[in-house]
Amino acid sequence: MFLKSEAISLKQLQYFEAVASLENFRRAADQLGISQPALTTQIAALEEKLGLQLFERSRSGTLLSPAGRELLPHARQVLLKLNTFIEAADMLGETHQITYRLGVPPTVGPYLLPNVLPGLHQRYQKLKLYVREDGPTAIQRDLLMGSYDFAILPLPVSSDDLVVEPLFTEPLKLVVSSENPLAGLPLVPPGKLRAERILTLQEHHHFHHQVKDICSRVGAELLSDYEGTSLDTLRQMVVMGMGSAFLPGLYVHSEMHKPEALWVTEVEGLPIRRQHALVWRAGAPNRIFFRELAASLKEMIEARLGKVVMV
């Protein structure tokens, strides 16, 4: 068994993890930047060395075999340890020249990052960021597995294995059509939202559940049959009179400069907010730098967006 494990390469484990995650050899090969035949050859070599079949291949797709399911968490742990080793070596050199992988939800990233990335680049000229958008649940899962180095996530984040450093609190604005009877009101009494038709994003978004909770509190009707795929889609649906929506303050600030067909307001006596934090693994060797990075982000957010969010 020692000789068998000695012959296995880290690259083969990376290939195994990629195919397992994407459940498709072609997409995995594209992500890895190699040809599909080369990937297939490496997986076959890994299976031969292990004496196990890792995948079940069929016309409908590629699935992990029972043995593959058992081994995948161990492979991910090995790759996570490798990333930790590389990060630790970088910290010893105090260069910060490696590329950090940042996860951020699509309801935050496009409206926050343009305001802070130029300042971060100026302050940390050797810092490189690979930014990827995904839902908060998927980002937290992948952060724990080592696919991200740190992330910007909405709170709460529940894991003893993660460090959470709050960054800012963002208000949610009520956006209605200019033809809606609520248009023109600087503040909307909660009672006037009873039975109001509220649009939201699809259920896999964390934002969906927050809006659902708001609707329960004020007695509004959540339109689950007309869920938007993006904040832009929600805005267009409101313009067309399909319903009203709660939209993040950063989005309103960034994308709705002259909303002639819309009215932006708030609910009276009911501040609706969501809090965001910088999150990283508790055992990350870069944790001192990540805490410094969080302080820098808060400073830049205060300077650029202090009238939109609360730091």
Automatic annotation (TrEMBL):
KW Acetylation (keyword) present: no
SUPFAM superfamilies hit by this protein: Periplasmic binding protein-like II, Winged helix' DNA-binding domain
Family: Belongs to the LysR transcriptional regulatory family.
A single GO molecular function term of this UniProt record: DNA binding
Pfam families, sorted: HTH_1 (PF00126), LysR_substrate (PF03466)
Domain annotation HTH lysR-type: ranges: 8-65
Protein's UniProt name: Hydrogen peroxide-inducible genes activator
Keyword field: Activator, DNA-binding, Transcription, Transcription regulation
PROSITE patterns associated with the record: HTH_LYSR (PS50931)
Coiled coil: none
GO cellular component terms, A-Z: protein-DNA complex
InterPro entries: LysR_HTH_N (IPR000847), LysR_subst-bd (IPR005119), WH-like_DNA-bd_sf (IPR036388), WH_DNA-bd_sf (IPR036390)
CDD domains, sorted: PBP2_OxyR
